[in-house]
Amino acid sequence: MSTASEMNSQVKIQVTDLHKSFGSNNVLQGIDLEIREGEVLCVIGPSGSGKSTLLRCLNKLEDITSGTVVVDGFDVTDPKVDINEVRRHVGMVFQHFNLFPHMSVAENIMLAPVELKKMNRTEARAKALELLERVGLKEKADARPASLSGGQKQRVAIARALAMSPGIMLFDEATSALDPEMVGEVLQVIKELADSGMTMVLVTHEMGFAREVADRVVFMADGVVCEQGKPEDLFGNPQQARTQDFLSKVL
Amino acid sequence: MKNNHTPTRTGRLTRWIAGAAIGLMALVVGAPASMAQGAESVEGQTYVIGTDTTFAPFEFRQNGELTGIDMDILHAIAEDEGFKVEVRSLGFSAALAALSANQVDGVIAGMSITDERKQIYDFSEPYFESGVQMAVAKDDEDIKGYEDLKGKTVVAKTGSEGETYAKSIAKQYDFTVKSLDQSATMYESVKAGSAVAVFDDYPVLAYGIAQGNGLKTVTDKVPGGSYGFAVNKGQNTALLAAFNDGLAELKANGEYQQILDKYLADPTVNTPGNFFDLAVKSFPALMTGLGNTLGVTAISFAIAMALGLLFGFFKISGNIVLRGIATTFVNIFRGTPLLLWAFMFYFGLPQLTGWDISVWTAGILTLSLNAGAYVAEIVRGGIQSVDPGQLEAARSLGLGYGKSMQKVVIPQAFKMMTPSLINQLIISLKDSSLLLAIGFAELLYQGQQIYAANFRVTETLLIVGVIYFIAIMALTKLANYADKRFNK
């Protein structure tokens, strides 16, 4: 993705002075961030630093206290903006998969395209099978989520997030809830997605993976961006004491 | 003399209704129970008359037909005077409340004429001279008079003249008086041995003994008060006059004595059949009752589901007004007894609004609002028990809140709610038996009707209990089958 961060590519997400509080707890204390088309951004940092909250603000799963988040040209903090429309362009993958247990694997993927009248059921099923093939689970189309392993569930969740053909994908600690032997298969799918040129923001604890796929790594601590840069710089030669301290513990 | 079944409650209820009526007289007067109000002649008119359900031999059901001394006298007078009657068998308390609410034009229910009642009602000439008598178990050879009661316990009907009389001599003969609500249950307690004797209205006792209630009288009757037909004070004067006129006519032509003899002098002696005979004989009436029980439960529960879904969603809404409405609804109907609402809807609402509320309407309102409050809580709990990640995942796909709830959250919530909903359905079915208090002819009410006439309390209740049990078991199996079928 060496071309992704070139200055001439389009800005997909623009975060300006983002603040988010839960009651008196100021989780985000002024975040400025710009993500360009095709860029893969990894967000790392200690627990409680606000990584996941930042990610959830990008598609407004959290109400934003102040500041602006502009996604694909839409200001999600503007009440006049149809947030559902914005979310159709932003796929999200959760730590705990959040597959719909009362639906089959294919139905999980078909739900949004069918309900949002983007496709009829036949087209949606064909699309679902295509996506399942991409994550290597075509034979599980009619299985129930409960019968899948954690790694398989997360691959289905990725397929589901891709069903509306989003331009941006958000990953919220997508491998944290997995048994170690299943992490690889999920990272492989994410990597393939990154290689396809998808704009992605990943909150992750997998430092090796971040180093491998990220165009840029952001280190957060205490609700602010502490340091950011190319992975080889941030991991190889961190400038801030907080970053050095954190990396010395996790690497 | 019978005052009523539950005089304390009735007294209060009547006063409450009378009090409310004063403020609402304008409304009430505009809504008479029949079209006959204020008419000069009773000829050709139809009057609605309230009566008791279970006060043999004055009114009771035989083979489904309401019969008894009161009924025979009423019908004979009506025929004589050329008016028609529509009898509503409501129960004593309910009949009086209905009279105060102008849902009926008059009440004939073995009611003693008392000074207190004369304040509210106009009474006819007495049509029956009653009295108190003591009875003991048939095989009891020890109690032959009041002096044998020393140190023992007797039963009498709450608020009746039997109770007053028993208490007046209790000190003299050194016995204890325990008060119960119904003749049939008093007789049961004497037979069961928890009391040695019963003081009751002599016609009721005489009839019960003739029906084989297992008692015998051992003392002479003590003369007491008189029974009268009642209308609201100052209203239906033509009806009252016609009653007095017809009563005099019946006494003159001997028909009156024939009626009394039919029930008191020579009652058809009841050969007590075996349990199976009782079950077969009471089966049609009990099945009608079961039908009404199931009907009122089904309709009420359907409404309760709609109410529960609505208010359940209000409860989890972000809107403070909707949440407030739902919380108020749930707190009111969960925080007050079902029976109170049955009385309120059947007696109170007609007075407040002037509407004619049928016993079905009142029953359905009562059950559905009560169950609706519980269903609202079940719905709220069910929705909140679904992992919030489910809603987030659906919303993150661009589905709106409504669509997300409909397609993702509700199906999962409903699966979790089902056992609680089945539970609530069964509770509602059992609660419907409380509607007997407003004269709704459900299963237990039918059972009361039967044992009030034949005094076989235990056996009848056993049959009723078995029917409830079978119905509820069948319903549970059906619901669980549906649960497995649709929530897989």
List the SSEs and their pairings.
The complex is a heterodimer of chains A (251) and B (488).
Chain A: E1 11-22, E2 25-36, E3 40-44, H1 51-58, E4 66-71, E5 74-75, H2 83-87, E6 90-93, H3 105-115, H4 121-134, H5 150-162, E7 168-172, H6 180-195, E8 199-203, H7 207-213, E9 216-221, E10 224-229, H8 231-236, H9 241-250
Parallel strand pairs in A: 3-8, 3-9, 6-7, 7-8
Antiparallel strand pairs in A: 1-2, 1-4, 4-5, 9-10
Helix pairs in contact in A: 3-4, 3-5, 4-5, 5-6
Chain B: H1 7-23, H2 25-29, E1 46-51, E2 60-62, E3 65-67, H3 69-81, E4 84-89, H4 92-100, E5 106-107, H5 115-118, E6 121-123, E7 128-137, E8 153-157, H6 161-173, E9 176-180, H7 183-192, E10 197-201, H8 202-210, E11 215-217, E12 222-227, E13 230-232, H9 237-253, H10 255-265, H11 275-316, H12 320-334, H13 338-353, H14 359-384, H15 388-396, H16 401-431, H17 443-454, H18 457-486
Parallel strand pairs in B: 1-4, 1-5, 8-9, 8-10
Antiparallel strand pairs in B: 2-3, 5-13, 6-13, 7-10, 7-11, 7-12
Helix pairs in contact in B: 1-4, 3-9, 11-12, 11-14, 11-17, 11-18, 12-14, 13-14, 14-16, 15-16, 16-18, 17-18
Please characterize this protein's 3D structure.
The complex is a heterodimer of chains A (251) and B (488). With 251 residues, chain A is of the alpha/beta class. Chain A is 36% helix and 25% strand. Chain A is built from 9 helices and 10 strands. Chain A has helices at 51-58, 83-87, 105-115, 121-134, 150-162, 180-195, 207-213, 231-236, 241-250; strands spanning 11-22, 25-36, 40-44, 66-71, 74-75, 90-93, 168-172, 199-203, 216-221, 224-229. With 488 residues, chain B is α/β, with parallel strands linked by helices. Chain B has 3 domains: 32-127 and 228-265, 3-Layer(aba) Sandwich (D-Maltodextrin-Binding Protein, domain 2); 130-224, 3-Layer(aba) Sandwich (D-Maltodextrin-Binding Protein, domain 2), CATH 3.40.190.10; 275-486, Orthogonal Bundle (MetI-like fold). In chain B, strands 7, 8, 9, 10, 11 and 12 form a 6-stranded mixed β-sheet that branches. In chain B, strands 4-1-5-13-6 form a 5-stranded mixed β-sheet. In chain B, helix 14 packs across helix 16. Classes of the chains: A alpha/beta (251), B alpha/beta (488).
